[in-house]
Amino acid sequence: MTERPILALTIGDPAGIGPEISLKSLAEPFAYAEARPFLVGSAKVLELAQQQSGTHLKFNIVNELSQCKFEFGTVDILDIDNIDMAALQMGVVQAQCGQAAFEYIRMAVDLANQHKIDAIVTAPINKEALKAAHVPYIGHTEMIADLQHAESVMTMFLIEKVKIFFLTRHVPLIEACRQCGDKDFVLAGIRRAYRALQSFHADSPKLAVAGLNPHSGEGGLLGREEIEAIRPAVQEAAADGLNVVGPVPADSVFHFARKGQYDAVLSLYHDQGHIASKMMDFERTVSITIGLPTLRTSVDHGTAFDIAGKGIASAVSMVEAVRAAITYAGVYQPV
């Protein structure tokens, strides 16, 4: 990609820290030196966020991308005026905020589907607010996948030099364990993760598959999923030429990856990989959704209602999400 990529930053739930960290991320000169970013959200909400956070940015409120300036010091805002400011309560679950957050995302996806932008960077939304608004999605990944007609997607975390893929995401732990007992399901996840890993690595990357049970099942004494599904899936993938090993006990696999023994880890369920990444560096963990037609990066934290509106939210994760979008916009492939 020779031109600076165009990045649409959705501001997330208006009652959370999303508007604040979105503004703070664009108070960094690198974003304009290396990209053409703009915000998708309510200009009134962002005006409030600016007052609360103490940023001193000029606003260029636009109705279409051709009106954007993409100049450091001036934030372009594709304005969606969908919040009753008199009723807005910071740090509180509200249906209007869940609906508004959905509309920001839908606008960004519409632009992506028209090939007008190169990546979407998302600030946090609130699942309870989505439910209160009767938005029929549990989160960003499911929402954008449906709006982009993506049949199968996978989450990948970037943390330090480690990449973590997730075989399962937002399902109950008992259901994740059931799915991990299906060899074909595990094999499909390995293959998808490895294809994505290859797109980020010029050489032959090495993928480790985490174990599910303590000590990877201890030869069947602590569970049979490794014997009946996970190890056979790894062996079949390796026989097909993939540089993959496992199952490696989950209490050590992330440590070995951090030391450089593996390029990536396939985590089998939500908290297995989330806990590891957040222990490495909570603020700098970035999420990328694999399988979408358009690159989507995101913070890996919530709306932080406890500090919303106080102007003290750290924008480090949002800054890192913008950096990741810049880095991968030219190489991302919807594997």
Automatic annotation (TrEMBL):
The keyword Metal-binding applies. SUPFAM superfamilies: Isocitrate/Isopropylmalate dehydrogenase-like (SSF53659). It holds the Pfam family PdxA. GO terms for molecular function: 4-hydroxythreonine-4-phosphate dehydrogenase activity. It comes from the Bacteria. Gene3D superfamilies: Isopropylmalate Dehydrogenase (3.40.718.10). Its cofactor is a divalent metal cation. PANTHER family: 4-HYDROXYTHREONINE-4-PHOSPHATE DEHYDROGENASE (PTHR30004), D-THREONATE 4-PHOSPHATE DEHYDROGENASE (PTHR30004:SF6). Belongs to the PdxA family. PdxA2 subfamily. This is 4-hydroxythreonine-4-phosphate dehydrogenase. It comes from Alicyclobacillus cycloheptanicus.
